[in-house]
Amino acid sequence: MAEPDFLTTARAFYDAVAEDYADHFRDVLAARPLDRAMLTAFAELVRASFPADGPVAELGSGPGGVAAFLHGLGLDVSGIDLSPRMVELARQTYPGLRFTVGSLLELPLADGGLAGAVAWYSIIHTPQERLPEVFAEFHRVLAPGGHLLLAFQVGDRPSRVERPFGHPVALDFRRGQPDRIAGLAAGAGLEVTTRLVREPEGEEKTPQAYLLARRPG
Ligand SMILES: C[S@@+](CC[C@H](N)C(=O)[O-])C[C@H]1O[C@@H](n2cnc3c(N)ncnc32)[C@H](O)[C@@H]1O
User: Fold this and answer.
1) Which end is more exposed in the chain, N or C (fewer Cβ atoms within 10 Å of the end residue's Cβ)?
2) Does the beta carbon of 76 lie inside 6 Å of ligand 1?
3) What is the pLDDT of residues 200-210, one digit of tens each?
């Protein structure tokens, strides 16, 4: 079957901007204590549920900084991303971690193998009508009791980014309402345990949302 346009467009966008994106956002977590707190809480939840260190994946891992942060917290983490250039860059920057090309709609992962999954600003390029498939994939790859952490921008309308860093590409950044995204997680059989919204900081234009969920069992 032909690939949907939104995947082709997102891949071309992130392949084009990979180096500039990595440079621009390299130190972003250092400046965002709440983001680090959510990732740290996620890591503690995973370790409490899976004391024998079950694997964790960052789904839509970009240049790999979030995966590296989770690794620094002691998790056995790997990354998956749509953009081959992002994967190449993440491998170069963090040679000790595993990064693979793949799509949220068809994750290259076995059923029930993950103790935890993080989708950190990666569901934001999937049209609303395709998100149920993405959440079905999150449910499929998580082990019973496995944890999911999501981050996304809050809002109703997409923001279109054109010519980022001067590159001739454009992409919609889709915002979401926490209740609607939580409903999608619940619809896929996940139990939402936490919703957190913080006000915009720095160059952010909208509030930012964080959702924690787990696969029952
Ligand atoms: C805004 S960036 C965030 C990257 C990383 N999570 C971070 O916070 O640094 C979004 C990433 O998600 C990836 N992505 C977008 N749609 C995807 C999909 N359907 N499957 C896999 N990755 C996807 C992009 O290639 C890009 O690297």
Assistant:
1) N
2) no
3) 998 899 999 99
